[in-house]
Amino acid sequence: MSALSAIRSVVDYDSEVSKISQFLEKFVDASAKKMDAEMDTELEPAEPRHTYMDALQLVADRAADAVAIRLDDVRAFEVQSSGAHPAFAFASSLAFRIEHNAKCYVELFSRAIDALMPEAATSAMQDADADVLDVIFQARRDRDRRDREALAAGAGSEQGGGTGAAESFPAVLTRRYTVRFVARAAAPVLAVRDVGARQIGQLVTVRGIVTRVSDVRPAMVVAAYLCDACGCEVFQEVKTRQFTPLAQCQSARCAANRSRGKLHRQTRGSRFLRFQEVKVQEMTDQVPMGDIPRTLTVHCYEGAVRRLNPGDVAHIAGVFLPQPYTGFRALRAGLLADTLVEAHDVRPLKRRYDQLARELTPEL
């Protein structure tokens, strides 16, 4: 039998969320400061441009669906707030911890963004493009409000008091954004064969040529069900490529009635993300003599899809993750797992080659 051991984590994640919130609230772009300084001094000083709070306002107004976090900004803010020299130990900085545990910090940033998300300028229900989840959330809020009014009037509620949409729905379902990390400018660009087990969980930047691109398909992240006995909504968060759907309702109402209602999946109430799989092969100059080029699988979600085409040379920054085998292959593989990169920042290099070609073209 394998021995089990529990070690207390040395990272205080609540403190990390607090630091992230301070960064999102107070960071001011240096270029914006310089632009304000170059303006006429006789004019009234403009309010500081908080880069990420402005980005959150765009997300709240449905003008953007992603929040790009630049690690260079995190590094600069930490140096400014601490008053330390820019050359202080990078290994003890927040940017270092994000870079080496990127998958975890995506959730920490999401928690901080949820707490700081401003109110939308216009109601989502007034938008002609409001999706079905907005309708569900608004219907739940209206129902909870009616229940509270009935309880306040002393009439009671046979349907049970509402607990609020934010408490009933998973956080993944209510988020209308994705968090993406942009690697540091000084971060090394690796070849496919240089990415190994030491980089598991880290934010890596890989250079390669795209050999195959799949179609854009919906990937389910939250499965919604409806109970035929109590009418409750049940949500199941999906974190793997394959999952087992729920069959019986386990809500408090079914437990009180001593019944196990049957769950029916509601596709319209589930949440899907745009998904695309890309195969990246290392460049010719990266392959040692006598070896064959190696290939890496890249998973692109939401804004990263449709950015690459076969034949493109690109820098892809993402989280290097293991992917366990499923089905019959899992029985044969045992403890082995495949690897992939979950793309955060995709930068095709085609424009650079076009610029080089224009520079080499003789002027007539």
TrEMBL record:
Taxonomy, superkingdom: Eukaryota
UniProt keyword terms in alphabetical order: Hydrolase
Give the EC number. 3.6.4.12
Q: What is this protein called?
A: DNA replication licensing factor MCM7
Could you tell me which species this protein originates from?
Answer: Kickxella alabastrina
**Taxonomy of the source species:** Eukaryota, Fungi, Fungi incertae sedis, Zoopagomycota, Kickxellomycotina
